[in-house]
Write a structure and sequence with these properties.
Elements: E1 5-10, E2 15-17, H1 20-28, E3 33-38, E4 44-48, H2 49-60, H3 67-79, E5 81-84, E6 90-92, H4 95-101, E7 105-111, E8 116-120, H5 121-130, H6 135-150
Antiparallel strand pairs: 1-7, 2-6, 3-4, 3-5, 4-8, 7-8
Subunit structure: Forms oligomers.
Protein name: Transcriptional regulator MraZ
Pfam family, one: MraZ
């Protein structure tokens, strides 16, 4: 399970070295094959390839005639790429993905339970400053957690 934020840098060549805590989780699960993409053009996502294949299998049932699914697959497919992480936890982010998501210099690699998100740290911090969770947001999360604990 991926959680927390660990800073990283992307090299000029586009190579990213995963922060050690995240690499250790992947190593423990014997995972080196990843799918790297973006859903929104702002945040890159790093998925264990097997997890991404589960998403594809679920979407396959709805891909014919569903405009929302087509848009999603267009975005994630156009910017996506299968990569193999090396023994040091490194892999190359494609130029098209780096350009779209502004991944350069200082990055934040954030755990999202089943996958990782990679964002431009300065832009993300600006976004966080204006998108503070509201009372309604926190109540909605609390309702989800309460419903899950009752089930």
């Amino acid at each position: 399970m991926f959680r927390g934020n660990h800073p990283a840098k992307v090299e000029e060549s586009g190579r990213l070295k995963l922060p050690v805590p995240f690499k250790q989780l992947l190593d423990a699960a014997n995972i080196t094959d990843l799918y790297v993409t973006t859903e929104d053009g702002v945040r890159a996502q790093i998925w264990p390839l097997d997890e991404w294949k589960k998403i594809e299998a679920r979407l396959k049932k709805h891909s014919v005639g569903n405009v929302a699914v087509k848009k999603y697959l267009d975005m994630t497919g156009y910017h996506g790429q299968e990569v193999k992480m090396d023994a040091q936890g490194r892999f190359v982010l494609s130029q098209i993905l780096r350009s779209k998501t502004k991944l350069e210099g200082d990055l934040a690699v954030i755990g999202r339970i089943t996958h990782l998100e990679v964002v431009n740290r300065a832009l993300f911090e600006q976004d966080l400053a204006v998108k503070v969770p509201t009372k309604d947001d926190l109540e909605a999360v609390d309702a989800i957690l309460s419903a899950e604990s009752e089930a």
